[in-house]
Amino acid sequence: MTMRCEDFRQRLDGDPGADFPGRSAHAAECPDCARYAAEAAVFERRLAAALAVAVPDFAIDLPEDGHDGDGGGRSDRVVSLDERRRGRGARWRGLPAWAGVAAALALAVTLALQFGSGPQEIDSSTLAAEVIAHMDHEPYSRVVTDEAVAGNELGRVLAPAVSRLDAGRVGLVTYAKTCPINGRPVPHLVVQGADGPVTLILMADEKLDAPVPLEGDGFHGIMLPVGDGSIAVIGEQGQSVDDVTENIRNAVDWQI
Amino acid sequence: MTGTSEDSRRHRFERLVGELRRDMYRYAFWLSRDGALAEDVVQEAMVRAWRNLDSLREDGAAKQWLLTIVRRENARHFERKRLETVDVDDLSGRDEGMLADSHDTDAEDLRAELLELPDEYREPLVLQVLMGYTTGEIAEVMELKQATVLTRLHRARNQLKERFAADGPDFDG
Questions:
Q1: Which end of chain A is more exposed for a tag (fewer CB within 10 A), N or C?
Q2: Sign of the alpha-carbon torsion through A78, A84, A87, A93
Q3: Which pTM does this prediction carry?
Q4: Which residues of chain A lie closer than 8 angstroms to B107, CB-CB?
Q5: For residue B31, pLDDT beyond 90
Q6: B1-84 is classed in which CATH architecture?
């Protein structure tokens, strides 16, 4: 035995992603630890999902009052948080009182759309903004992997919206989940494109007249009209999604 | 400082913070377990970072620098306020909108366990899983030995698995 099972599991729990010496050899000769490692991989995905936090769209505003330049911070300048809250209007540039109200309202609307309200008629730019915002929710989905989603899981996610998915065109699906977009549950997939993982949002009920480019904080892509619905194809900035975009056009039939 | 160098400094700051403010918020959220408080902590961290930007020699070190500032700002806040113990159920309910994908019941259950995890176990887990830090980098941020970090991560996962297995589904994928 290359290493003790206890050591293997302790190292794995400390850093599941680490390729520590003896890891592969031990897993190869110890079925119990190999199963433990497989379960640990599942747990890591769940852990990443549980830790995912939607980031509110708060502004970056620089203070007017210069900088210390001493590298060490100056605690004598730190006032209490309550004082800061009272004085924020004076400390932060370009934030009129109505901006806070507007920001809160925008956040409330976004959250309501995402988590509470039913579907609404929205224009393509609003839909595009919601799709891009959704990219922040599941960062753990966009990993380079050759581990396909189980067929029954993929079927479960697709079933309410999609009657046919041409697996040969789409390629390897490594993530599948039902997510809310415009108050509707839609399939959210990740496929392994030529240039990395590509996110697909399959929106059977969001009809578009023309393709809509998607641009976000670190992301880019396109929403394609497909029959009576649309499909968002999204990759990271600088990543080509052309191959997936080309292939997905004729790879999906919606449920009637 | 001339107008040009001030502009350059401002541009540098906006570029660095623009790229990293999401990580700053996520880290602040899991440190404080409160969305509104996390926003305050990030804003205050930005002020401190702006004032001390010249101490950051290499932009490549910005992430660790900013997260360390967030960590200290959060600690300062708790020292000042000495917040009362917050009920976890109340917290998770209040911040439901800030937590992604509330339709995933497994994630919700595990999230509830994460919120109950002791701070010293939750923090290295957040840095590792959410921020992609190595155990060496976590040790640096938390000012601990690497072996201590490994032990805390091991215990954190064990506690979560035990609690989650007791309350939730089997880990069958």
A1: C
A2: positive
A3: 0.52
A4: 46, 49-50, 52
A5: yes
A6: Orthogonal Bundle (1.10)
The shortest CB-CB distance from A50 to any of B53, B81, B111 is to B111
Q: Do A248 and A128 lie in a common domain?
A: yes
Same domain flag for A232 and A140 = yes
Q: How far is B63 from chain A (nearest CA, A)?
A: 16
How many C-beta atoms surround the C-beta of residue A241 within 10 A?
Answer: 25
User: By the CB < 8 Å criterion, does A52 face chain B?
Assistant: yes
What percent of chain A shows pLDDT beyond 70?
73
For residue A112, the chain B residue with the least C-alpha distance is B97
Residue A23: domain span: 5-45
| CATH number assigned to the domain covering B90-173 | 1.10.10.10
Q: Among residues B70, B167, B173, which one has the least CA distance to residue B123?
A: B70
Same domain for A105 and A9:
no
Higher-pLDDT residue of A207, A180: A207
Which A residues in the span 127-146 are in contact with B, Cβ-Cβ below 8 Å? 136-138
Closest CA of chain A from B86, distance in Å: 18
As given in the structure block, the two tokens for residue A24 are 């592969």
Q: What sign results for the dihedral spanned by CA atoms B101, B103, B105, B111?
A: positive
Say if residue A98's pLDDT is above 50: no
**What's the pLDDT tens digit per position in A119-138?**
556 788 889 988 988 887 77
Instruction: Specify which residues A164 forms β-bridges with.
Output: A253
Residues A129 and A244 in one domain: yes
ipTM over 0.85: no
Do both A110 and A158 map to the same domain? no
Do the Cβ atoms of B135 and A72 come within 8 Å? Answer: no
Q: Domain segments of chain B: what residues? A: 1-84, 90-173
pLDDT at B96 over 70: no
